[in-house]
Amino acid sequence: MKTGTRDENKVRLDLNNPVFQENLFALQKTERLAVLDTLNKLRQLTWHQVYRDNGIKWEKIVSVNPPEGINALYSLRITKSRRATAYREGDFLRLLTIAPDHDSTYGKK
């Protein structure tokens, strides 16, 4: 039985987005393993911990409008050199992309 607030619940990962999967499988082995390490870390955290973790650096993306039905898009550090885009839906972290570079996460060129 769950107790406490939503932010005290563990993060549940949704890795089913085809773009996220394509980005993940296109990475070199060392980076792909680093992504898997981060994903493993995320699934062990509560939402409160995700928001405060200095390594993950959860940030709201204000330069890009979210798709219909999504309140806000966020970026998080998925490896030392890459960020992922995602959104929160309940306890789920729904991953959308792994950006090829930091600026493309925020819609900049």
UniProtKB/TrEMBL annotation:
Domain of life where this protein originates:
Bacteria
Q: What is the name attached to this protein's record?
A: Uncharacterized protein
What is the scientific name of the source organism? Crenothrix polyspora
Highest classification ranks of the organism: Bacteria, Pseudomonadati, Pseudomonadota, Gammaproteobacteria, Methylococcales
